[in-house]
Amino acid sequence: MSSSREDWVSSLELPTSFYISTVIIIASSFTYILAKKSVKEGNGKMGTTWLLVTLALGIAFVLMQFNGFSQMVARGYYFTGPTSNIKLSYVFLIAMVHIVHVVAGLISLLVVLYNQYKEKYTKKEYLGITLGATFWHFLDLLWIYLLLFMTFVK
Fold this sequence. Notes:
The chain has a single domain, classed as Four Helix Bundle (Hemerythrin (Met), subunit A) (Up-down Bundle). The chain contains four helices and no strands. The chain has helices spanning 16-40, 44-74, 86-117, 127-152. α1 (16-40) runs antiparallel to α2 (44-74) and α3 (86-117) packs antiparallel against α4.
């Protein structure tokens, strides 16, 4: 078990940027909900606006994650090397893999935006937005779980 290793750190202060990025990704889920609601109500322009806000928040999430990595390195926490440990490596790895998934979510969101610009979504036809939003909300919940895991696993 990893937590029984000598190089396991029981107290690790996560960077503030990880918590800020959590607020950002939660907000982005709400904006995606508002985008879908707008399209369902026949307000395509507002739907597009909310999708663009969601995209901006998604990009802000990724940037805050990288800022968090910088904060960790500034504290002397490294992914590998003589000053690293197994828990730090897990934290870096978990956050990096989640970023890869968020990039997939951003690509999905760009496809939804493209289809929205092409006016493919209507009051009755909005499956693409629904599927994109479902994936986005999954990423949101996954990050919250991962943050709690990284915070409370001793």
